[in-house]
Amino acid sequence: VWVNIANFIPVLSLRQLATLNSSLLHIALNAHYRQISFIYWDHRLLRNLIRLKDPYIARRVKILHIYPGFLKEVMDNDARLPASTTTTAPRDKPSSFRERLADITQQLREYQDKVFNPPSSRAGAHDPHINLMLWPPCWTCSLTDYYVTWHGLPSADPFHSHPSSSSLPDPDALGLSLTNLAVPVIGTPLLLPSLNKLSLDVSLENIHTLCSASFHVARLEEFHLHIHSDHPLPPSSLHNILNTRLARSISNLSLYLRLLSIEALESMDVGPLFQGLDLMNKLETLSSAIPIQKPHLGNPKSLGRFLRRQSSTIKVLRIRATQHDAGSSTAQSSWRKVALGEYEMESLDTLEVSSNLVSLETSLYLAERFGGKLKSLAVLGTVKSFEFVKELLKVLGRKSTPVSSESPSEEASIADVPLSPELLDLFAHQLPSLHHLELIVRHFLPSQDDVPIYASTRPTRSANGGDADGIQLDEQIYEFLETLQNEWCWSWWGLRMISVWSENTTMTMPLPLPLSTPPTPSASASTKSQEQQQGRQVQHEQRSLTRTVLALGKKGKSALTFFSPSGPVDHSCTCLILFAVI
User: What is the Cα–Cα distance from 76 to 68, expressed in whole angstroms?
Assistant: First the structure.
């Protein structure tokens, strides 16, 4: 009961109710410690480290974010502190071997006392540093999601030598280098059996250090990899990191890994990574972000051959484009066609292509390439014209000839088109087996030939350098809904739910049902009268849409949703989702 009540209480307010009873105390603690971050070296981080030594608190942590920049802060603060009292006395240069050995022994003892002794046994400014090194082994016993960001910091680069001996750091600094501190701190949670999602946003140099022979996660199911490069690397070193270290580490996860996401933040040849990956029998989802600059991700056939090896397991393929410097999306389109156009993927049923950098031609090519076997196609990010949607739906409709009424053909997701009755009519005729439709639109039009009308009191804004958009007039949206209700009807359509989202309206009130009843003959055009007569003859109690809600979201988005009375939606049915860049 208290859990259900807490679902309606803001998280920040739960702390004030923690003293009412034990149930609310547990709920408040779970909400407070569910997700923690170790990013900045401050009192909050120290307080969390102390509290997480208590298993009663530690078992509540589910999500952890780490950026080892706070270790660099510790080292910088430590370097500015005065020397320890045990080392203030100057030492004469030892002359004999025995004196040298005694001096080395003394330095080792000082180093051990500095690093390994517990804080309670010594006083001084190094206590926070020691607290960090004495990482409590039990605080992450229930950790499920782990996010690591490690790039742009000084790293131990094994492929570059120092230009001169004078630039070498002293031995004590080498012993307490950032890399030597970061590896055990970052690597400890990787050994937890409860971990099932790992996100690494790291540089190639740190991958070389982190992905050692001991890198192993027991039951990892999701692995998200974002690759940076802090230093230019020769091809041989790049091949060694990707093919030998990283590919071997990912292959060790094959027993449970279901989702693999790879993104190169700079244009680089990651072909050796795809070449070195073993067959992963549980892998169902592959996500890849492709830079539009050459060489993109290297040899496109490396990705294609990996997809061929995984063709019997991969069901979901997500591809998007990224841009970090000037580049041509046309060259990337050719690269993508080579990578995806040569091999068949027997198990693929969902394809998502997103980003404004993906050309419409490529989207049509991929729809033609995989449309016959897909249940879900997502084309997101680029502004789509009515003619493009018409052509795309024609391809999907031609590819989706269901064997029987119980086997719907596909799911689809399309981006950013003005919503009009004519557009819905295209969906109804080209995809009659569609059951779930979600739309994120820029504006609503009573007719495809109309233009949006914006409120003059609202400021306008420019979207991607195009026409400025403001807040659309509510009257035009009402006219759109009235047109749907009075002049259009698709009672034979298998659609069960439609959700519409838009940021260009402030409407928040419930609206009348636009699609559940056939239009009146007087309001119908001659080209639609035959459809209305057919709609009256069909028993559409199971098909028509019966409830409409238009509600304002937290970020100013409005949602228009229709639900079917025929019970819960069968998740095996098709789904069409339209997303817009607003």
Answer: 13
